[in-house]
Amino acid sequence: MPMMEAVRIESFGGPDVLRLQQVLVPSPGAAEILLKVHAASVNPVDYKIRSGKYPAVKSDMLPYTLGRDASGLAVACGPGVTIAEKGDALYAVPAIDRGCYAQYVIVKQKEAARKPSSLDHVMAAAVPLAGLTAWQGLFRHGGLEAGQRVLIHGGAGGVGHFAIQLAKAKGAYVVTTVSKDNIDFARQLGADEVIDYKNERFEHKVSGMDMVFDLVAGETQDRSWGVLKKGGILVSTLTPPPPEKAAKYGVRGMRYTVKESGAELAEIAALIDAGKVVPHVARTYPLNEAAAAHEFLEKGSITGKIVLVVEG
Ligand SMILES: NC(=O)c1ccc[n+]([C@@H]2O[C@H](COP(=O)([O-])OP(=O)(O)OC[C@H]3O[C@@H](n4cnc5c(N)ncnc54)[C@H](OP(=O)(O)O)[C@@H]3O)[C@@H](O)[C@H]2O)c1
To answer: What is the pTM of this model?
Structure first.
């Protein structure tokens, strides 16, 4: 039976619980594709899962292969696959039961799309989970439209740097909060106004927003209600906004979890290939240094994304 390398956890804990192990290469079933992973990104959910703090991955799922997204080549297609043939380059967010810190991963065809042709696999792997999260927060849940005003908290991170570019591509007016070192980065991404959240109070600088996209939570979310106009919406990737707060300000609030979607990944790929969205990869690590990648991301202050390069 063919074997592959995968980074797995057998127990929850710090970066030291990550293990590079030999496991069986899976076989694709109906409507499934075996993807040879060239690169996989590192997302905050990975260290939340690793530490046992993510409710969707409990101890009955151990040993567990980490990694929520990847870019690679289709090497085998199960019956009923129509989106790809052997040899096609794809990128994907598989469901949480299949990890991408591995040489191969099974993706269902509804979870995958053609990799943006203008990007190599390392750049493409930076996109799926963070890009989809930004897309769904802004458009599926926030309903952001051209001409509207959005405040994006955490604009320099993985999700935030895509959110700025997607909102601008839509024709929205974008205000974002970042720390000082990322002010120029956020401007280059197209933000109309950039607020240094460590030295300025965003609620003193903006008002009348149609949407707040909250990638930070805590007191940042709490201080955001007053910047929305009546009927506006606060969408969070983190803490469910208290309904009484939203009611008090005459606005709406919601929290969501990103959903796999090959169709939306295809829309994002089209924007990338049109030059409207450019991923930023801050660092790469080889697969066997996933622990170092986790340590770096967990410290915070990331600009863009971290990607694991998978050999072999
Ligand atoms: N619900 C879902 O489905 C879903 C999906 C994806 C992500 N998430 C969550 O959403 C959050 C963001 O994800 P990500 O991938 O973008 O994380 P990330 O890449 O780690 O980025 C976090 C960013 O937030 C910035 N930041 C920290 N405190 C801030 C503050 N008070 N104001 C403004 N910016 C601040 C950091 O920059 P500096 O510290 O340098 O300022 C960093 O750039 C994570 O907690 C993640 O787990 C949820």
So the answer is: 0.98
Distance CA 273, CA 117 (A): 7
* C-beta of 21 in contact with ligand 1 (< 6 A): no
Atom 40 of ligand 1, nearest CA residue:
301
CB-based burial label for 34 (10 Å; 0-12, 13-18, 19+): buried
Tokens of 251: 């606005």
**How many angstroms does the Cα of residue 154 sit away from the middle of ligand 1?**
5
33 Cα to the center of ligand 1, angstroms: 31
The number of residues making up the chain comes to: 312
Tell me, using a 6 A CB cutoff, whether residue 232 lines ligand 1: no
Q: What is the pLDDT of residues 90-146, one digit of tens each?
A: 999 999 999 999 999 999 999 999 999 999 999 999 999 999 999 999 999 999 999
Q: What are the structural domains, with CATH classification, of the chain?
A: 3-127+279-309 (3.90.180.10), 130-255 (3.40.50.720)
179 C-alpha to center of ligand 1: Å? 12
Q: How many helices (H) and strands (E) does the chain have?
A: 10, 16
